[in-house]
Fold these 2 entries.
Entry 1:
Amino acid sequence: MEISLNNVGRRFNKEWIFKNINYIFKQGEKYAILGPNGSGKSTLLSVLLGNLTPSEGEITYTDPDEIRVENIYQSISFAAPYLDLVEEFTLQETIDFHFQFKAYADGLNASSVLSLLGLEKSQDKALKHFSSGMKQRTKLALACCANTSVLILDEPTSNLDTQGIDWYLALIEKFATNKMIIVGSNQAHEYDFCKHQLSITDYK
Ligand SMILES: Nc1ncnc2c1ncn2[C@@H]1O[C@H](COP(=O)(O)OP(=O)(O)OP(=O)(O)O)[C@@H](O)[C@H]1O
C-alpha cells in the first residue's frame, strides 16, 4: 500500500488545521505524526482513514492498483482512545464480531488473541465492566491482530500503565514487520520505533 497526499489541507469552518501536505506513506515504513494538543494529529489520521475528506488537495491509495476511498477500510486497522466498542458485548463476542469483518493475521485465531491480551479470565465479561486500560488493550490487540497492511494508532498508550506500555511495544514488535504504521502522538515512548516523523506545525 502507498498513501499519497498531494497538497492536502483540512479546515473546520474558516479555521485551517493544516495545509499543503505533500507526502507519500510507503508500505512497511513507520511514521509518527507529532504536534501539541489540538494541533491536528487526529484530524490528519481521520483524513488518512477516509473518515474525513480533505478540504483541498487529493489523497490516493495504491495497492498495487488504485483503491477507492470507500473501500480503504478493508486495508486499514485503527485504534484510538475515542473509538467506541460495543459495551454490551463480552470480550469473546467482541473478538468474534471484529474478525467477521477483518481476517486474522497469519497463524492467529480467537483464542490466541485472547491469550495475547492476557485477559482470559475476562472473556465472558461485558466490556462495560472493563477498566479503561483493559479497553485500550482490547482495541490495540484487535487492530494489530488483523491481516491489514496499514495500522493507524492514535495515542496508543493512553490509559495504559507501565506494564501496559511494555505490552504495547512487544505487540508492535511482533506484528509490525511488514505493515505501514502511522502513530499520532506527543509521547516519545509511543513512537520511538518510527523512522519517519511529521510535525503538524510544519503545515500551518
Ligand atoms: N468536527 C470538528 N469541528 C470543528 N473543529 C474541530 C473538529 N474536530 C477537530 N476540530 C478542531 O481541530 C483542531 C485539531 O484537533 P485534533 O483533535 O485533530 O488535534 P490533536 O492534535 O489530535 O489533539 P490532541 O493531542 O489533544 O488529541 C482543534 O482546534 C479542534 O478543536
Entry 2:
Amino acid sequence: MTHPAQPKASHFINGAYVEDTSGTPIPVIYAATGEEIATVYAATPAIIEQALTSAQAAQKEWAKKTGTERGRVLRRAAEIMRERNHELSVLETYDTGKPLQETLVADATSGADALEYFGGLAASLTGEHIPLGEDWVYTIREPLGLCVGIGAWNYPTQIACWKGAPALACGNSMVFKPSETTPLCALKVAEILIEAGAPAGLYNVIQGMGEVGGALVTDPRVDKVSLTGSVPTGKKVYAAAASGMKHVTMELGGKSPMIVFEDADIESAISGAINGNFYSSGQVCSNGTRVFVHKDIKEKFLARLAERTATAKLGDPMDESVNFGPMVSARQMEIVLGYIEKGKSEGARLICGGGRAEMDGYYVQPTVFADVTDDMVIAREEIFGPVMCVLDFDSEDEVIARANDTEFGLSAGVFTKDFTRAHRVIGQLEAGSCFINSYNDAPVEAPFGGVKASGVGRENSKEAIKHFSQVKSVYVRMGDCEAAF
Ligand SMILES: NC(=O)c1ccc[n+]([C@@H]2O[C@H](COP(=O)([O-])OP(=O)(O)OC[C@H]3O[C@@H](n4cnc5c(N)ncnc54)[C@H](O)[C@@H]3O)[C@@H](O)[C@H]2O)c1
C-alpha cells in the first residue's frame, strides 16, 4: 500500500505535478523507523528545462500585476497553510523525523508567517523621488527575474517559504530545489500557491542532488540564487553564481557562541542552552553550540543542565508528548556519533548522553561535554546534532575574543542581568543574528543571516526585499539637454 507521504509525482512544474522516472531514484526514509516511505526521481535535463522555461514565462506576467494583487495571493496561501497546519506538520515530521510537537508550531506556521508578512509588504514596494533643482530622479524597485532556491534538510517547509515569499512579493518567479534528504514538503508549498491563485509556473519545485542544483545555478536565464546549506556547498554555489554575475543569498552553517555570565538567571540560561542545542535534535544552523559559562557558576550550571536534559522525552515523533526526535538520516547520525567519539578522545568531560539511543531509528542522545577547550575539533567544527560543548571563561574581554575566534558568524547569545554589559558584549560579537537572554528565536519581522563564512545577505524582514529586487534610477531633465559640441 502506498504510504500517505508519497507525493503524486516528483516535481511540480507549471502548475501541476510532473513525473519522469528516468531520473535517479531518491528514496525518502522516515528517520524514526528507517523505513522507506516514498520515492521521488531526480530531475532530468528535460525536467530542468521545463521548470526554467515555465518560470521565465510566468515571471513576465506576474511582474505586471500590482503589488496588491501579488500580496493577495501570498496572504491567501498563508491562510491555506494555517488551515492545513496539522496535515503539513505530519508531512514535515515524515520528511525530517522532527517531533510533531515542534512541527506543529515551527514549520508550516513559520512558512505561513513569511507568506503573510511578504504578502503584506508587496503593495508597499515603491521607489523614491530625488529632487535636483529643476531636474529630478525617480527610482523604481524592480524584480530580479528568475530566482533559484536551494534548500537544506532541516526545515524544508520553512526554507521553501522563506525564499519563495519575498521572491514572489517582489515580482520574481522561482524554481526551488529541496534537499534530496527531505523532498516532500516543498511540493505542498507549490500546490498551495496554485490553490491560492498564483499563476502556473510561478513557483516550481524540482528534485535532485547537487548536480541538479549546479545546473540551475549555472543556467544563464537565472538571475538570483538563494541557498541554505553548509559552508563548503555555499562556497561552490557562490563561485558558480559569481561567474554568471548573479545575485546571491547564502544562508550557511555556524558554530555560534552563547555566553553565560556569572550574574545570569541560571534556569533561564539553561533553557537558552537547551533551545540552542537540542531543539530539532540539534539540527539548527543558528545553534549556540559553544556555551561559554563563567567559571564561578560552571559546576552549578552543569549539574542543573544534566538534570533537565535527563527529562528530554525521546520516542515516536508522532506522539505529541515526545520532544526529542531522531537525526534526519543514518548518515547524519553517523557524522554526529563520530564527533561524540572525537570529543571523548580529545579529553572533553562527558556530562550526559554520549551515544546512540537504544531504539529503532536514528536517535542520538542529547549530549553535553564540559571542560571543552577552544582547539578541540568539537569546539571548532559544525556538528549539526545534539552535542553541546561547555567551555569556561574568566573575563569579558577574554570570552569575546574566544567567541569570535571562528570562521563562522551566524548567531551569538548573551545571558546576563546586566543590560549595559549585554549590549556592550553583543556589539562586539561577530554574528548576524544575536540574542540577549534568549536563544534561537526567528520571527519573520527580524533580519536573519550570518557574517563571515556563515553567509551573505539576509532572509526575512524588509532586508529580504533588498535581496530579491533591484533599483532602477531614472534621471529626468526638465530643460534642454546640452553638450560641449
Ligand atoms: N543559515 C541558515 O539559514 C541555515 C539554515 C538551515 C541549515 N543551514 C546549514 O545547512 C547545512 C545542513 O544542510 P545540508 O546538509 O542539506 O547542506 P548541504 O550543503 O549538503 O546541501 C544544501 C543544498 O545544496 C545542494 N547542493 C549540494 N551541492 C551543490 C552544488 N554544487 N550546487 C548546487 N547545489 C548543491 C544540496 O542538494 C542541498 O539541496 C548545515 O551546515 C546548516 O548549518 C543553514
